[in-house]
Amino acid sequence: MNKEFSADQAVKQMLPFAKKAGVETVWDRFEKQQPQCGFGTLGICCRICWQGPCRIDPFGEGPSKGVCGADADTIVARNLIRGIAGGTAAHSDHGKHIALTLLEISEKKAEGYQIKDEAKLRSVADKLGLPQEGRDLYEVAGAVAEATLEDFFRKDESIHCSWFDKTLPKERVEKLEKLGVVPGNINGSIAEIMARTHIGTDADPVNLLLGGIKCALADYVGMALATDLSDAIFGTPTPVKTRANLGVIKEAAVNIAVHGHNPLLSELVCDLAAELNEEAIKAGAKDGINVVGVCCTGNEVMMRRGIPLATNFLSQELAVVTGALDAMVVDVQCIMPSLAAVKDCFHTELITTMPTCKISGATHVEFSTETAKESAGKIVKLAIEAYKRRNPAKVNLSDITQTAYAGFSTEAIVAALSAVDPNDPLKPLLDNIVNGNIRGVVLFAGCNNPNVVQDHAFTAIARELAAKNVLMLATGCGAGAFAKAGLMTPEATEAYAGDTLKAVLTAIGEAAGLSGPLPLILHMGSCVDNTRAVAVATALANKIGVDLDKLPVAASAPECMSEKAMAIGTWAVSLGLPTHLGVVPQILGSELVTKVLTEGVKDLTGGYFFVETEPKAAAAKLLGAIETRRAGLGI
Amino acid sequence: MSDQKENYFIYADPQKCLGCKSCELACGLVHAETDLFTAVLEGYKIRPRNRVVQAENVKVPLQCRQCEDAPCAQVCPSGAIGQRDGMVFLNRDLCIGCKSCAMVCPYGAIRVRSEAQGKGDGRIKRAKALKCDLCVEANGGIDGEACACVKACPTKAIALVDYEDLIQRSMEARAKEIAAVASGREK
Ligand code: SF4
Ligand code: SF4
Ligand code: SF4
Ligand code: SF4
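^ inputs. structure came back:
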């Protein structure tokens, strides 16, 4: 193996086993796809109607228009915003599922679920301006659920989504309203993209991009509500110490990986695993049941329960290659269909659970709110049965894990800061930003992508920024990368943080009773939880009375790939953040679209995209963006 | 010249070609000595030596066949084209852009185009003949696996053909068939 695929030590350890077992991995398939089509890479292939497919010659010799007359600008813009709509649909379907469950809880129909964090529910009700006097918890839950669902289905689309207006600085809302991009309801925003990109509809690239911004902001709404309502139902995360990487899969346990995105499934699997632990021991697994996480549902249960994280997106197949994974339970998003073929080489049970996400070759156990407990029980029992079939000759355990601290919700960060200043919790953070001890804040988000050495860009950029005293937050598979690399620990703070950042993280950590510094990078959750970072930024912005685009805050998605990442990146830019992409987006076929997204949009929202595939240069540019903002604030 | 090998040439199987034009992009980029993103961002002109054409339902890239009695070599007034090391070699330094070769090529595989970025000096346009060079410059010789179009084709429609090798293989395959039939009869 002379080419480097991953910076993850456990992946390097496991790939030869995959090869030996005849398992084809994502890297093998990526290799076979080379070279990938230049037209698609540039975004200038259109398959919207059956007159096509049409391709534009990027070098101006061949066709400059599709059959219908659409040019490169129109085609690139249409393709991009369809991706944004896909991401928005994925996130908000997840959010809708949570909101509907809250409604069912309020009607006492969802056995297995309850409201674990009443204070969070009440604070959400306050935020949405819902009266609570004389209402019991269930009535409040019902009102919150109804108001939230209204953001999906509102008839009068001229009324803003409540979760939009109530969670962002006033100035930002007004700015976006002037651009005509505030969503009135989520479903309508997605449908609008599909309608306007139909053949022969919107052909103006700038108008199309504005439509994309509106849909991306609907994505923000879907994510914000998914996060907060999940907290109400399952509890708001608080700091927790756990472990990450493939070594968390244990020989003497029934190992169940929860993979996908929605805590509705993974939480119940954890509950039932605890209930059925004895059965596993009876079956011969002396350590009982060991639930581990993969991808974002892994982040969800990691933050709330300290469930160890097995791995992130790109290496999901390798969890099966350990030969000791008895079941992989999946719900939606980022689940490689290849898992079905990988598990065929082992004893692992692959279990799909959602009517909208089936994989042929997998066992399907349908999951619905009413029968959640029953289904979760069935899943755990399938895992115990599979354990009995485990073939010791095929076990390739990894010994690699790292300590990781997770669970830094907005509330948890504020709580840690209150230990320093109970009367004005944000003050210590703000003071340190103003005095330059913390130069700024970078939020890492997004996926892995085999175009990039797995986890390398994340960790390389973070080490650079740490030395330059930048406070870092992370979500999604980026958080997974840092957790696996041991960068979410106090030790990493000691090792990599610049002096002033170290001093601040130590002061807060010690005040909060951690007897040491806060971790170098704060784990804020799954990819749907990126809105937690916006909540922190909004609180800071409100406190000093400026809009988000003035803050020394930037976002970075060094290894992005999914449509969800396209949506998140676009709303980050729309909210005013300089946003780094470490993978070249499929838009270069249109100079105009590229210019608008990297330059022109600055004048509209204050945010912009920049692309940099080299980690050191990316870190320098992120730092540059932060310093420009500091100069703007005169600090 | 009796010990000289017949020329290699690029052949694409029309049964396998889907008309994606990946081979065109790859050919243009390898000769521009750049990658796709740079070429697009810098606004380079790329000049593929091949072109995907369609006739009826058949799609296939066409490029120089490296003819044995090459009409282009016959007509070139400046001696820019001739046989060399298993191919028809075009010496672009000698080319004056007269287009004679392009006119006589039965495959339409030669184009006279400028590769210069910019406008020239007003006297000459710097347009010169372009044709498939089997990527010899990029690869330092003839290497079928390394030809840009061969590498780029997702359906493996394109191959560098070693004519003698092909004939040999065809003969062996037929001989095997005959042998199989013959041994069947014996039983
Ligand atoms: S919408 Fe236009 S560009 Fe797209 S496939 Fe149809 S004709 Fe071609
Ligand atoms: S790359 Fe292959 S399939 Fe595509 S046009 Fe060329 S020969 Fe045909
Ligand atoms: S265009 Fe160039 S190579 Fe072709 S015949 Fe004229 S001089 Fe010769
Ligand atoms: S062999 Fe090289 S020069 Fe000839 S068509 Fe293919 S890529 Fe172009």
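Chain A touches chain B at residues 35, 37-39, 41-42, 55, 58-61, 584, 588-589 (CB under 8 Å). Residues B 10, 27, 30, 49-50, 63, 132-135, 147-149 surround iron/sulfur cluster (ligand 4) (CB under 6 Å).
thumbs up if we can close this ticket
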